Amino acid sequence: METNQYLEVFIDESKEHLQTINDHLLVLEKNPQDLTIVNEIFRSAHTLKGMSATMGYQDLSNLTHKMENVLDAVRNEQVKVDGEMLDVVFDSVDDLEAMVIDISEGGSGERNVERVVQLLQTIENGEALSSIAPPDDGKTSEGTPVQIQLDEFTSSILAQSSELGKNNLHIKVTLREDCLLRAARVYMVFEILEQAGEVVQAQPPVDQLENEEFESTFHVLLVTDESSEELENKINKVSEIESVVAAPYEMGEPQKQEKNQVNDEPVAPQNGETRTKNPNEEKETKQVGNKTIRINIDRLDALMNLFEELVIDRGRLEQISEDLQHTELRETVERMSRISGDLQSIILNMRMVPVEQVFNRFPRMVRQLSRDLNKKIDLHVVGAETELDRTVIDEIGDPLVHLIRNALDHGIESPEEREAKGKPATGKLELKAYHSGNHVFIEISDDGGGINRDKVVQKAVANQVVTEEQAATMTDSQVYDLIMESGFSTADSISDVSGRGVGLDVVKNTIESLGGNITVDSQPGHGSIFSIQLPLTLSIISVMLVEVQKEKYAIPLSSIIETAIVKKEDIMHAHNKKVIDFRGKVVPLVSLMDVLDVPEELEEEEYYSVVIVRKGDKMAALIVNSFIGQQEVVLKSLGDYLSGAFAISGATILGDGQVALILDSNALIK
Amino acid sequence: MKQLKVIVFQIKDEEYTVPVELVGSIERMMPITRVPGTKTYVKGVMNLRGVVTPVIDLRERFGIDETETTDQTRIITVTINEMNVGLIVDAANDVLDLEEDSIEPPPEVVGTMEAEYIQGVAKLEQRLFILLNLEKVLSKEDVHELKKVYV
């Protein structure tokens, strides 16, 4: 079978199923009695097994099968859910993940899983339950009587059709036990049946059949012109069918089946609530479902790139139409700008993905870490549906992992210590994401020991990050920020989890390179909060274009508070620095001309145009020569050669084709 | 015999070469935006068909005095170590095949230019070509001048 084209879908779906299994296992761990969860897990495992076997990954399918057996035993209450059993299942999920990753990297998905298989086998056989081997999947339903129950409506259809001289057939289809794509086979059978006549009823109901919620046999009542032999032959052409029996259906008369088969007993109309389907309803269920499609991310990126080109040209067109003063051209360009604005928001929206994608691996990680560290931790995830641009999502995972590890290792104390302090033995870790304005905030808070100011100062002085005199005058939050300087680690012992001294500074750098920032707040004894602020999107930003002498610069709107005109005589001096009084606050003046070494070409004026920018709660007033206006621009990098230029975060191409630099106002405020 | 295809360009009176596979395009002079806080030989960035590309002036890089831009002035864009950089040269007008055997190691002293930028020299008929070591020319060290924070 040519499977390459399905490989991507297979990998995506396998990952999804493994994630579902993971999530549900974690829920199950909390509610070991809830067998409906086991069913969910079982379903995902089962689909995964089917898919991997179809794709020819035997190891994957075998291991899933073994896991499924254990789950099945749990479902049938032959095996109890306990920590040990869950550990083994988690282990096997890990193995499965490793295999899928191997496959996605072009490997064969082979892996030595003997140990896990053996463990699974032991559980499956369950010492205490050694006499009852869990039944193999597919056989469980044998012996359970299946009945086709009719309501009045159905039976009236049957009665009518037999009056019209049509055949009412009862068809019993048994799929082969090793059938892999049962839903597909069911679909094929139904297609044949629908061509031949009308499916009046199915047992189990069609929606369950489509979800593979049946073992290997299903029953269908069909009204048709064709004879039973014709139909049997047609259905037999579908592969992986074990047997088909079509027999005339006599209302009210029980029908005999072969001995070793399920005992079907059609029952006369009596129960109006029995689930039934008429043909119309059935068609509806088939159409429902696919409202989303998967798109390769490369295509979205390509679309985004093309659109960026368009934005540049749009800027150019706007400028031309302004210069020409041609009414019709101007109207058309305005219209085009509006449409491309809409297009922009749609494209940006398409690239938004819920942070869930990153968050969903954390419950598992926290579970593992809390075991390794012998700590009890309760993880709360809030706002996993918050959306972020994909580029940000891709980058944010590692920093978050680091912060969480940090919180678990250094933040939350051991159960004994916590109890001694009068706190509950189980520590709390909260992961929270939410939107605010043009930013997304992610907060990681714990109720652990908090940051020890003295320890931080000691360490910072020892590592020559600050001097003792400096440290003495620092506020608490300034001290906390020190832990994100490079070469810093307050853990007394280096542990496996964190504490190699690399890390928090890397976290800070990564987040700043994404155009975001990170702050720490802490209350000794009550825990710490790491708060990350991230831009919604990275590629197209709103800026204010300004002129510094003859050069044009762009200042991101997100960091601008407002613009103002300041009289020369209103400038005050404090500590030899120029400051202005801005709405009751003393704000330092920064001459962009000096900072950026812009050659002086214009005469000094009586008034200064200033742009007030902020970084956190600090502000600065940047002196410029004129404001050009607000514009949407495409953020481009300066290129590798110049990356890291002072106070410049990137460049953009203006309407006239020239390059303007984007100021990083954060670098100008310290 | 192995041959090396090179682009020949001119700075002052001397002819230099870079391997043709490193060259992306040869452009006429275009507007360049100055980038603050960089060495003077870094002229800034230009818009190369939608890509922001840094430009350096080879004359200044080699410590040769500046001249006015002429009709002959070209920007050669090269890609090395995945970096895209434009080089301003006095003129660029030749593509040549050099015999690998004709390339000799750089002599100890070559004019005013620091020898470390030279990979070798090649003689073809009466002309002498200098093979540039682009990696050295475009080394990222000390591109930025040290800057203090103002506020």
UniProtKB/TrEMBL annotation, chain A:
Residues 252-288 are annotated as: Disordered. Keywords: ATP-binding, Chemotaxis, Kinase, Nucleotide-binding, Phosphoprotein, Transferase, Two-component regulatory system. Signal peptide: none annotated. SUPFAM superfamilies: ATPase domain of HSP90 chaperone/DNA topoisomerase II/histidine kinase, CheW-like, CheY-binding domain of CheA, Histidine-containing phosphotransfer domain, HPT domain, Homodimeric domain of signal transducing histidine kinase. Residues 329-538 form the Histidine kinase domain. GO terms for molecular function: ATP binding; phosphorelay sensor kinase activity. It comes from the Bacteria. Residues 540-670 form the CheW-like domain. The modification Phosphohistidine is found at H46. Residues 1-103 form the HPt domain. Residues 253-262, 274-286 have a biased composition (Basic and acidic residues). Its EC number is 2.7.13.3. One of its GO terms (biological process) is chemotaxis. InterPro entries: Bact_Chemotaxis_CheA (IPR051315), CheA-like_dim (IPR004105), CheA-like_homodim_sf (IPR037006), CheA-like_P2_sf (IPR037052), CheA_P2-bd (IPR010808), CheW-like_dom_sf (IPR036061), CheW-lke_dom (IPR002545), CheY-binding_CheA (IPR035891). GO terms for cellular component: cytoplasm. Transmembrane segments: none annotated. It catalyses: ATP + protein L-histidine = ADP + protein N-phospho-L-histidine. PANTHER family: CHEMOTAXIS PROTEIN CHEA, SENSOR HISTIDINE KINASE CHEA. This is Chemotaxis protein CheA. It comes from Halobacillus dabanensis.
From TrEMBL, chain B:
Residues 3-143 form the CheW-like domain. GO terms for biological process: chemotaxis; signal transduction. GO terms for cellular component: cytosol. It holds the Pfam family CheW. It comes from the Bacteria. InterPro entries: CheW (IPR039315), CheW-like_dom_sf (IPR036061), CheW-lke_dom (IPR002545). CDD domains: CheW (cd00732). This is Purine-binding chemotaxis protein CheW. It comes from Halobacillus dabanensis.
